[in-house]
Amino acid sequence: MPPADRIAKMVIALVAASMSLYHLYVAFTGAPQAFFFRGTHLLFAMALVFLLYPSLVRREEAATGGIRDDAGGIYGAAGSARASWLDWLCIGASAATIIYVWAEHERLITRFVYVEEPETIELVLGVIFVLLVLDATRRVIGWALPLTAIIFLGYAFFIARVRFEQVIEIMYLTTEGIFGPTLGVSAAYVIMFVLFGAFMERTGVGRLFMDFALSLTGHTAGGPGKVSVVSSSLFGTVSGSAVANVMVDGPITIPLMKRSGFRPAFAAAVEATASTGGQIMPPIMGAAAFVMAEFLAVSYFQVVIWAIIPAILYYVAVFFAVHFEAKRVGLLGLPRSEIPRLGKVMRERGHLFIPLVVILAGLISGYSAPYCALAGTLSCIPVAMLRKSTRAGIGWHTVWEALQDGAKNSISVALACACAGIIIGVIFLTGAAVNFTAFVVNLAQTFLLLALILTMLAGIVLGMGMPTTPAYIVMVSLLVPALIKLGAPVPAAHMFAFYFAILSAITPPVALAVYAAAGLAKANLWESGWAAVRVGAAGFIVPFMFIYEPALLMINGWEQWHVSLLAFISAVIGCITLAAGLYGYLFAACRMWERLVLVIAALLLIAPELISSLVGIALLLAIGAKQKYLDRPAAAASKPAAK
What we know:
Structural class: mainly alpha
Number of strands: 2
Strand content: under 5%
Low-confidence stretches: 58-67, 75-80, 633-643
Strand order of the largest sheet: 1-2
Mean pLDDT: 86
């Protein structure tokens, strides 16, 4: 490696590690004033973007071998070329614009917004700052989010007729624009949990999750597919990214599924769908969950409580989709000789679960989410050193690499939140949210279902072009108020938007998790995409379920636990029945009319009314009894997994 490349690599490593260390320090001592804290976070992120994504190198060359990530950026990319003079100029300009805000923060926090006119130098620096944020976001995420922000700016200038000075003022000189609450969430919450995930990965948790899943489900019908579901749900709790999850789990689970007899497209679909669910899986979930806690002014632990039952329903549906497909085709599990024993796995590596327990215990005890993430992060290395089986390869280099990984993995979210701040600033300045809410309400009239369908489609479309967090933010700003006005409970409306911003990762034509999984499985993209929609069909229904039955979110408190329990049991049976109907197997292969009855039964069970649930159970029992006792189906030929 040429000396200049070594120096560039060292600079990137120092900036990334410094960013992580700064946030670890702040999590321990407490965050400084918003302009300082959010500005420092953004300056680190922008410096890394301009260093890692050079302007004078073609994007495909800078990211050779990588795949676009649903959280932004390129996952698994090769090292980029050195930054050019233009990139260093951008870093200098970023520093100048943010340092000016630091220097003037006393005056900025006491000035009267829209009354005192910004100075000329502030307008010039503000324009430069907005352009730099748009360019940095474009480099790390692509054009979709910056173009959306530009459209909103055009709306402010040419339709709402807002003065140029006011737009720059809100974006640059206040905490309602780029330095707004969304960037604050990235600085306070997201990077800490991304850092935690980086330390967990570096200490070998991925292998623990895989062995744990194999020991539980590897021997059952379609075992490798169920291993994918369990391991992806576990890894998703620390990765927060569907594509990252696919790229870690997929190289192991997809070949296992193919070897056991699953079609390549189905194997890709299972891995993509299971990996996507990681963003809705407590206790960590995706970055947008932290934004939700900030928007609703509740603790993050409260969001975790809301997410528990919907996440279980999602994974129950995916698990049984694999089970019924395996039964229908006649597949068995892996040989016992290839499966690690659960006791041995837990004895040798089970202690690596401790950092997750630390975070969960901290959240339950009422500590702040960043402080819990700090405690979990600091526990990773000592926990890995507890036993010889996990101690090998752990050293100071592990800490150094994890610090770099955490910062690099967080820059896409930081820039997405900064760019989303432009959109939120325009909405705040122009009152666009009120107008859009009125439009949706007028269009839907009194039909909440129509508004939900519009929101679902908007979430899927937005999620195709931008990461989950900004897609959720745009939906919350424009569509969620209409749902609330039409009667949806506030937490349920936010969770609805959150889910559909995530599910775009498995929805054709732009299904990023499917792209990653199909590449690993060497399967057709469109076939894999539609197979993923079928595997995750319940995921598209679950959000409607908790809108009409809020007890599934446990928003009424523990005193109504029996209501939540009954709703949960009915919904679980409904999700299993839906999988049986879609894959044509219950106790035996189903005829077409039996599949139709099962789907109808599932929808009735999913509905919140008691009568519909009882009818659904009756239909399910009728089909089950017919297959079990009246029919005499020929025994399906079964074949063991090849060795």
